[in-house]
Amino acid sequence: MQVVGSFIATIGWLGLALIASELLSTLIYDLGQWVGYRLIGARVVALVGFRYQLCKVDGHWKFQRPLTAYPHLVAMPPVDPKRFNHALYCFGGGLFNLLVIVLSLVTMMQFTWDFNLWLFIFIIWVWANTLKVGQLLPMNFHGRPTAAQEFRAARESTAAMTAAYVTATATALKMQTGSVADLDAAMIVMPRNGGNQNYLVVRQAFLILEWGLQHGLSTPDLLAGLSRLEPSFNLVPPADLARYMTATLYWNLFSEHPAPQIIGWYQDLGVQQLLKRYEPLANFKLQAVYEWQINHQSKRALELIDAGLKFAQRSNASEELVWLKALRVRVEA
C-alpha cells in the first residue's frame, strides 16, 4: 500500500511539473515575442491565452472571452513596411525558449544527478521549452502554421512577404476593432505574381474580399472571388481553410445559391468538424442560414442567431455582430 501511495505521489508531482513547465515556457515565449516586436517597432495590442484575452480597445485594455484561443501575443506591425523584420516577428518567442534550454542544460552539467524525481522534472522542463521552440504545442494542434512554416512561406516571393505584412496588420486591427473595415485602402491591392500556391497570398486575397464586403462589394463579385479561392483549399492551413469554407458556404446560402456542391460540403462530417473546431463563432450564422434556407426552420435559425450574438458581443467581434443582425432581419422579414 505504501508503494502504491508513493507511486501516486510521484505521478502527481510529475503532473504538476508538466503543468507548471507549460505555463512558464508559455510566459517565456510571450516575453520573447514582446522583445522581438519591440525591436522592430511593432506594438502589442493583445495578450491571448486559453479561452481568454486582454485586448487594447480604444486605448484601454479590456478582458474578453473568445470561444477558442491559443497562447500568443498579437502585435500591430510598424507603419513603415521597411522596418518589418519578419524573422524577428516570427522567431522572437522561440529564441527565448531556446536560450532557456541552453541555460538549463549548462546548469544541469554543473551538478551530479541521480535517477530520481528531480531528474524527471528537469526533463519535463526542457521538453516543454523544446516544444515551444518548434511551436509544436499548441500551434499545430490549433491548425495554424508554425513560425518556421510562416517564415518559409513569406520568403518564397516579394508578393508573399507583402502579404505577410498586410495580413499581420489586418489581424492586429481586427483584434482591436472586431473588423478590417478601417484597414488602409492602400493595402487592399493584390500583389503581382503572387499565384495561388502560397497560403499567405491566398490569405491576402481573402482579406481583400472581406474588406470589400464591408465597403459595399456586390454579392456576385464576392461569390466570384470566393470561387477563385477554391483551388487553393488543399494548400492552406486548417484554420485558414475553415475561414474560407465558412465564407463560401454562408454567402452562397445567404444569397440563395444553394448549389449541390455547397450542400454537399456543408453536410460533410469532416467539414462540419473543421468549422466547429476552428470557426465556432462564425458557425452560428452558418448553421442559422442553413436552417432558414434549406430546412425552412426560421425559429431554430433565430435561436442560433441569438446565441451567436451573445458570443460575438463577448468577443468584441463587431463584424460578426453586423452579419448576424443582417441575417436576423432577413429571417424575420
Automatic annotation (TrEMBL):
- Organism superkingdom: Bacteria
Give the stretches traversing the membrane. 7-29, 86-109, 115-134
Q: Which UniProt keywords are given for this protein, alphabetically ordered?
A: Membrane, Transmembrane, Transmembrane helix
* The keyword Transmembrane is annotated on this UniProt entry: yes
What is the name attached to this protein's record?
A: Uncharacterized protein
What organism is the protein native to?
Lactiplantibacillus xiangfangensis
